[in-house]
Write a structure and sequence with these properties.
This is K+ potassium transporter integral membrane domain-containing protein. The chain has one domain. It contains 15 helices and no strands. It starts with a helix and ends in a 7-residue tail after the last helix. The relative contact order is 0.18.
């Protein structure tokens, strides 16, 4: 009887194990949940740091893809101008035009406005047309409303209930819709043409630089070498944006950083007060003095923004922030200093603009 009572009063070993297991499991779950809460609290900061780092890496990669045409434009801006006996005032006016062209077209138009008009992360002329077709019934493409991450898309969606007069006009006029399609196709063709001509001009002028240290190099040899380089460049496109960017990054980064250093040297050595030409009144006096000849020179000054459209056209390969960081912090200051150095040198060497 005593043994039976002791066995009844003593808890079962399995029950003890269950209790212990339950207590340890619950405490383990509590510790796990506490660790998760700590990780979740630190996760946004980690993600934010990773996002910033990846954006900076993308910004660095844009130098090898997006801005190749823009940073090489100093090779041919001044040589393409039909200057005849230019004066110091002429060069100050030309630099003022180039500075404000880079500022208004590069900084304001592309880096601040156009780059935000993406179509679900894609940029370019057809992206704009597709965005219009999605929100306005202009034919060709469906006007079905779909979600988009574009800031322009959100602003357009807010105004879907009340359409603008321009939207109503395009919907009601078939001629206007066809003209809009023609403009979109024309813009695409011009972009393709620029993508073909700009590398050809850049490579040809770069190769022509061989004739300075090596006068024995003939012009036909320069053209043949340029053709070989261009064929190799276009054959490399099939390997994708990432590999092409990796290949050209060191070259374009070295070019982008070295040309403003040469510009700073020329500014200090030849004409330190060159930045007074930033004042727009030099533009007014330039056209006032030169008249029609001044307007003809605009064909050369506009070349300083050659390749700037790639900031919007190549948006699908990169994001908005990376392109903006690369342009505003490296490309734009580099070009401003490079053109300033060229102009400072030409003010002291008035007839060297062809080289």
């Amino acid at each position: 009887m005593d043994r039976r009572r002791q066995s009844e009063s003593r808890p079962n070993q399995s029950e003890v194990n269950v209790v212990v297991d339950d207590s340890t499991a619950s405490s383990g779950r509590l510790l796990h949940l506490h660790a998760l809460s700590i990780d979740s609290a630190s996760l946004p900061n980690a993600n934010e740091q990773m996002s910033r780092w990846s954006t900076l890496v993308l910004a660095y990669k844009t130098l090898g893809v997006v801005f190749g045409g823009l940073v090489t434009s100093p090779l041919y801006v001044y040589p393409s101008m039909p200057l005849k006996s230019p004066t110091k005032e002429d060069y100050l006016g030309i630099y003022s035009i180039m500075f404000w062209t880079l500022t208004l077209i590069g900084v304001v138009k592309y880096a601040s406005i156009a780059i935000k008009a993406d179509d679900q992360g894609e940029g370019g002329t057809f992206a704009l047309y597709s965005l219009l077709c999605r929100h306005v019934n202009i034919g060709i493409l469906s006007s079905k409303r779909v979600s988009s991450n574009s800031s322009l898309s959100h602003s357009m969606q807010e105004g879907t209930e009340k359409k603008s007069r321009l939207g109503i006009f395009f919907e009601s006029s078939i001629v206007a819709r066809r003209v809009l399609l023609f403009v979109a196709i024309l813009g695409m063709c011009m972009l393709i043409g620029d993508g073909i001509l700009t590398p050809a001009i850049s490579v040809l002028l770069a190769m022509d630089g061989l004739r300075a240290p090596f006068p024995s190099v003939s012009k036909s040899l320069v053209e043949a070498l340029s053709a070989v380089v261009l064929v190799v460049l276009f054959l490399l496109q099939k390997f994708g944006t990432s590999r092409v960017s990796f290949l050209f990054l060191p070259i374009m980064a070295a070019w982008t950083l070295s040309t403003p250093l040469v510009g700073i040297y020329s500014i200090i050595h030849h004409y330190p007060s060159i930045f007074k030409a930033i004042s727009p009144h030099y533009i007014f006096h330039f056209f006032w003095r030169n008249g029609k000849e001044g307007w003809l020179l605009l064909g050369g000054t506009v070349l300083c923004i050659t390749g700037s459209e790639a900031m919007f056209a190549d948006l699908g390969h990169f994001n908005q922030r990376s392109i903006q960081i690369a342009f505003l912090l490296t490309i734009y200051p580099s070009l401003v200093l490079t053109y300033a150095g060229q102009t400072a040198y030409l003010i002291k060497n008035l007839n060297d603009h062809d080289d």
